[in-house]
């Protein structure tokens, strides 16, 4: 049994950590912080947690107390983990950051996209990008994990087999992604109101979105060369889920694409390659840590289409964070992550 | 470890049994039947079950094979359990019927509401109404359980403390109930299409609904006298959840209503009395077996209002069925039913 | 052609006035005010208005300029009309207030519910409650209209025939009302987010809501005696619509209830009594000024149930405001209000 | 005033024709047919039409009676218009077919995609593809109109300026399209249930969809050469609306793309080019005949992205059909099509 803390626990990734960790037999959530809700019990804010965390209350984010934890999750806006991570690491506490703070290896690029100086460039060298399907061994030994973003997770897992096999033109990638509204967080914004966002569909950030450099970096790592990616996210009228539709231009005879995907992910506990001809639904992963994939080659032509679905709050955030924790602490990788999706 | 079978597993209560039992450490689902889908694997029909029941397939409902189970759930339209229950009971198999077949003790009343003769009146004497909060001891020794309907569960749990305490006029009960669309089942009906049922609210069955006699029977059992109940169900644009708003006319000084409710349910694992002044949301029980209640007395007047929420597929069907199974087989009552609700 | 102004045009009732008035052949919207959006074109804020108001922009609420209008709508939070109405009336401008400022005739009662002193008690005497089905003649000659609230409109129209006929106990009225989220306005509140309010149902204000005294006052006017009303509003996961389910206890043989309702509303252009046995859907009035009603007497017993649906933004606000304007200026009552509802 | 008939009026495009034509001052809907609902009044089936078509009832599709109409709309499954169109044309009745029957000019290609022989190949020569933005003059003189499909309308209007200007590679077009569920019609299918289709997103027909050859034919007409199009439709949890995200590879310096689009559509009453940087929402066209477009060039690179939204039932079907009718009969093109979109 390890003790963990959560910094910034009032948002959706925070409550999702609590929901999932309630089922984790080897983790005790000993501390959760929130400046705005200090003293409030988590089950008063999130009634779904009544009966699970009946005494846990939000506290001030105190570095010393956090330093007594075995691991600390950051479920915070960008910038917060920069300020605290170094001190925690020195105390021997592992840091699993769900924000964007350590995802880009280049501090300057981070600054350009996030509009502020990078607060902890000295830690970039050791931060491990927490996508187990690419970096499992590094994760096991990491002290500091940058949990991938939701869009980047779904896009990278979809392109991975094709890029590794060198089958598609890395300069002509198009990722058309659709996300439920929890991707925009729990902030009170007019655009996220039910009256505004339901019964409608729209793109956003078509000319540039912060997840673009993260995805590009990840795809470069696979490809070992520059990539040209067009990434258009869309706001979809549903609570959870990301559906990424990925397009690539074949540069060689791909052979059996279905087999390629099945083999690549044969041993991955959280990637499910659907049968040939499938169209995975986001609801099939509602509440769980699985990414479901299907690969199509319309009309046997030059374009390959990958359909990739995840729950943005689980495999796209809190579930993947726990998967990383399991790897770091030597637990079974799927500990606490075994329930089926809620459907319907 | 016991072996259970599910008859009629293609509907929403069937797949919900599978979802919940996947987390039950003492139950092996050895058989699931469907005439229409014989041979189809359950995970092909319900992709959320991929990785959980990878070999289980629908089979013909064969009484002999079902008789080899320790218990059989009926997740069928009414009439099916009538035909099979007797033979199973003779073989020593316990029967947990989620349909309406054994809910009404009076076969004639059943016939009037369901438009056909009762198929097994000889079993009515022994059937136990599976509402643990009222009949826990009988359930423990039962061979045949009639799992309460979704509306009846939420209404009875809400009125129970008031009627037991003799505080309200049993002749003037009004239950205004709102249900998500899964209450109408998985049948392909125009009225249940997203294009028809979303972005709208309507009552139905205002002049009489099949759950009325069941609720009235249950309230009579509590009250030990006739009751006058007006019950108006409403179709609500959401997948899961029932919100029952219950009105009663006080006949005596009720004292501390909050304390009354808290005491009545102090030891109930699946009834959660919310703090005074609360308004429980159906989403706070999404996917779980809990009924959350709040009691109000507007303007300190003569009318008491109880707000009662459940997930119609869990406490209103499959979860309650498993709660009954746990009691019948001596397992901890909440075995397999401990995950928090999915929220948001 | 008359010139009208709209004060506070950025909220949902403001944009709905614009949408409806775009189809009104005798009204020119010459001015719309908003402190926060001064200078912004309405079609930039509300793209559905592109092509309709391509030059109209929000301006400061200037009393002098407003005084040049024939009529001014207030689509503002409470308190604003108090401050401006008197001056406008003196200038000969008619005032149609969609807020609660002039709905209650008793300034003290208003203060208790709204937590501030009434700002214009001297105008209460002349303000007319703008429910045409009750006060049509007074409206025609009014200078100042208090447009009824959304819940009060649906509840009063439902009870009206029964109370006028003296058929139900005025001391035992129960109004269980379900509203779409636009009833909560366009403010950025966490509870109104799609991620919070969709896929869920909840009551609110069960112990007391600001529309209660307004409804009670209206029902007293019909009944000519005190009434006892329990009113429980519910937040429903849809954009528009109110469904009020109204319960009354019969005190006399009601005779033919269907005929009673049909006769009462035979000449009302915006009240549609549905055929006997109907269950009106809120979507059947989406975008239009109609209230659809159905009356039931379950089991031929003592309880009568009225189902009443409106669009909260139209008959519950902006449409009814225009209906009042039409009456005040001698236009056909349904001018600009003739389009069918959008369905599906 | 002309007399029109509607064949197959029970589906969504049929009721949408009725809704829109109720506002058309020069059209009298004299006849509507449905084999399954003969004798039923349209307002009993569609309560939103109460007060608008109080006597119109569904009748048998009788060719002679239909031949007395000035124009007949077919809102039918494919194959029906094949059987009736010829006889109507001989009688001098204009035919506006909302189905796919006359969209493809090649009868063999039609047969391959629709799995049956083409029933009226002799009419293909004269059928005009009813996209006014491409074929306005031909439409004015047409007797037989093939109203474009919903996806094809949104895709062609988006690519049109780019292809006409020869700016993109016609061999590398990718159309990622998202549609509300009314696109699947009013048939009672499990996949269209609220419980199945809400709170989820999925692609379908990724390997080939019937709208593909129609779009390809239309783009070839613009391009005057073969095109290579990848088309992936997605089912989106909303009632109405299509959002097409269109990708093209620039082959030349495009200059000012915004100006290109604005100029191409400067005189089009139903195409609205949004300001530079916009992301149109489908709800901004809910219920109206407008297509809103925005054009982006991410990172000033080689990929151009066009965002195109329509209401699938209006510009994607019934509204465009009426636009065609207006052109054919010399009415103002926007007669009956001037109301603003319903928003929120």
Automatic annotation (TrEMBL), chains A, B, C, D:
Amino-acid biosynthesis among keywords: yes
Presence of keyword Kinase: no
Pfam family, one: Semialdhyde_dhC_1
Catalysis: reaction(s): N-acetyl-L-glutamate 5-semialdehyde + phosphate + NADP(+) = N-acetyl-L-glutamyl 5-phosphate + NADPH + H(+)
Major subcellular location class: cytoplasm
Active-site residues, as the UniProt record annotates them: 150
InterPro entries, sorted: AGPR, AGPR_dimerisation_dom, AGPR_type-1, NAD(P)-bd_dom_sf, Semialdehyde_DH_NAD-bd
Alphabetic keyword roster: Amino-acid biosynthesis, Arginine biosynthesis, Cytoplasm, NADP, Oxidoreductase
Pathway: Amino-acid biosynthesis; L-arginine biosynthesis; N(2)-acetyl-L-ornithine from L-glutamate: step 3/4
Span of domain Semialdehyde dehydrogenase NAD-binding: 3-142
Main enzyme class: oxidoreductase
Molecular function per GO: N-acetyl-gamma-glutamyl-phosphate reductase activity
Cellular compartments annotated: Cytoplasm
Gene3D superfamilies: Dihydrodipicolinate Reductase, domain 2 (3.30.360.10), NAD(P)-binding Rossmann-like Domain (3.40.50.720)
EC number: 1.2.1.38
Known role: Catalyzes the NADPH-dependent reduction of N-acetyl-5-glutamyl phosphate to yield N-acetyl-L-glutamate 5-semialdehyde.
HAMAP family: ArgC_type1
Family: Belongs to the NAGSA dehydrogenase family. Type 1 subfamily.
Protein name stated in the entry: N-acetyl-gamma-glutamyl-phosphate reductase
Gene it is expressed from: argC
């Amino acid at each position: 049994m390890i003790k963990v803390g959560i910094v910034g626990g009032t948002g959706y990734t925070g409550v999702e950590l609590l929901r999932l960790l309630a089922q984790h037999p080897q983790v005790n959530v000993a501390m959760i912080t929130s400046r705005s809700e200090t003293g409030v019990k988590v089950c008063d804010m999130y009634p779904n947690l009544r009966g699970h965390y009946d005494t846990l209350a939000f506290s001030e984010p105190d570095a010393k107390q956090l330093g007594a934890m075995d691991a600390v999750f950051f479920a915070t806006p960008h910038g917060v983990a920069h300020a605290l991570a170094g001190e925690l690491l020195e105390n021997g506490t592992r840091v699993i950051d769900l924000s964007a703070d350590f995802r880009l290896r280049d501090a300057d690029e981070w600054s350009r996209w996030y509009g502020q100086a990078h607060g902890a460039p000295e830690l970039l060298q050791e931060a491990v990008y927490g996508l187990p399907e690419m970096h499992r061994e590094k994760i096991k030994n990491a002290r500091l994990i940058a949990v991938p973003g939701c869009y980047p997770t779904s896009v990278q897992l979809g392109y991975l087999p094709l890029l590794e096999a060198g089958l598609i033109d890395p300069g002509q990638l198009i990722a058309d992604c659709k996300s439920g509204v929890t991707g925009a967080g729990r902030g009170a914004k007019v655009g996220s109101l039910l009256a505004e966002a339901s019964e409608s569909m729209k793109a956003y950030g078509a000319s540039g979105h912060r997840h673009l450099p993260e995805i590009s970096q990840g795809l470069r790592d696979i490809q070992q060369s520059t990539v040209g990616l067009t990434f258009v996210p869309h706001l979809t009228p549903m609570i959870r889920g990301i559906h990424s539709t990925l397009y690539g231009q074949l540069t060689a005879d791909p052979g059996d694409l279905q087999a390629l995907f099945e083999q690549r992910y044969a041993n991955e506990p959280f990637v499910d390659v659907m049968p040939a001809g499938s169209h995975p639904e986001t609801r099939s992963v509602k509440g769980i840590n699985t990414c479901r994939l299907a690969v199509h080659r319309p009309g046997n032509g030059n374009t390959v289409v990958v359909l990739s679905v995840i729950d943005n709050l689980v495999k796209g955030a809190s579930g993947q964070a726990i998967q990383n924790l399991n790897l770091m602490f030597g637990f079974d990788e799927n500990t606490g992550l075994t329930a089926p999706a809620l459907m319907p």
